[in-house]
Amino acid sequence: MIYPNNYHLGMEIRIMRENDAQGAYSLMVSSLDEYYAPEVVQYFLMQWPAGQIVACDFSGRIIGYLAGARLGPGRASVSLFCVDPAYRSRGIGSMMLARFRQSAMMEGIGHIQLEVKENNTSAIRFYTRNGFTVFERLEHFYNDGSAGVRMVSSGSSVRSN
Ligand SMILES: CC(C)(COP(=O)(O)OP(=O)(O)OC[C@H]1O[C@@H](n2cnc3c(N)ncnc32)[C@H](O)[C@@H]1OP(=O)(O)O)[C@@H](O)C(=O)NCCC(=O)NCCS
Question: What is the sign of the dihedral through the CA atoms of 76, 77, 82 and 83?
Answer without folding.
Answer: positive
